[in-house]
Amino acid sequence: MKTLIALFCFLPIMVYAKSFVPASFSAQFEETLISKATGKEKKSSGKIDYKFPSHIRYEEKSPGSTVFVSNNQKSWYYKPPFIETEQGEVTVSKASKFPMTKFLDSIQNGVENSKLFTHKYSGKELRLTFTPAMQKDSSLKEVILLAASDAKVVEKMNNFEKITLVYLDGRQVTLKFTDFNEKPVFTNDHFEFKVPPKTKVSTN
Fold first, then answer.
1. Domain 9-180 falls in which CATH fold?
2. Which of 23, 65, 133, 156 is 20 to 30 A from 106 (CA-CA)?
3. Is the pLDDT of residue 97 over 80?
4. 3-class secondary structure for the chain?
5. With contact defined as beta carbons under 8 Å apart, do 67 and 193 qualify?
């Protein structure tokens, strides 16, 4: 599984916190992974649900159907069986440092004066470069948000056309969001994974 998102309201000079990314959201995504080794692209699509802090449900629906769920205590990574007669597999871990979650959590207070990254505008681009400590914790070197025009006037994260996560190992994952819902209603157990019957469970 490969694997994003939160910010503010931009005025020409000042950025005000807690308006760029909502405390929770749901969206469809299209993802493009560029391999460091081959340079080839691998595309997938699915749905992402997020709730601050550190709650995420990331479901890849095409070409596979893997599910990653994490909250403040546990995380689950589920791979369904290829055929119904086989077993699926789920790995249960302590709350995971999933890069997308770390990124979304990091921008809850906006991009100005962050202790986790520096930011730079350049035309259509907003680039967030993480501190060494944050890089180690998240495996992310930087995140690049691409707008249709001047990035400084973009008011919300979902109005950026693309978001690219650049990993320390050279991988790049680009996400595009559609059907962005800023006021989703999640059930109490939405960020817990219910293990299906005939599933092999492992822990680490």
1. outer membrane lipoprotein receptor (LolB), chain A (2.50.20)
2. 65
3. no
4. CCCCCCCCEECCCCEECCCCCCCEEEEEEEEEEECCCCCCEEEEEEEEEEECCCEEEEEEEECCCCEEEECCCEEEEEECCCCCCCCEEEEEEECCCCHHHHHHHHCCCCCCCCCCEEEEEECCEEEEEECHHHHHHHCEEEEEEECCCCHHHCCCHHHCCEEEEEECCCCEEEEEEEEEECCCCCCCCCCCCCCCCCEEEEEC
5. yes
Instruction: Tell me whether strands 74-79 and 172-181 are parallel, antiparallel or unpaired.
Output: unpaired
135, two tokens? 């890089």
pTM to 2 decimal places? 0.86
pLDDT of residue 9: 28
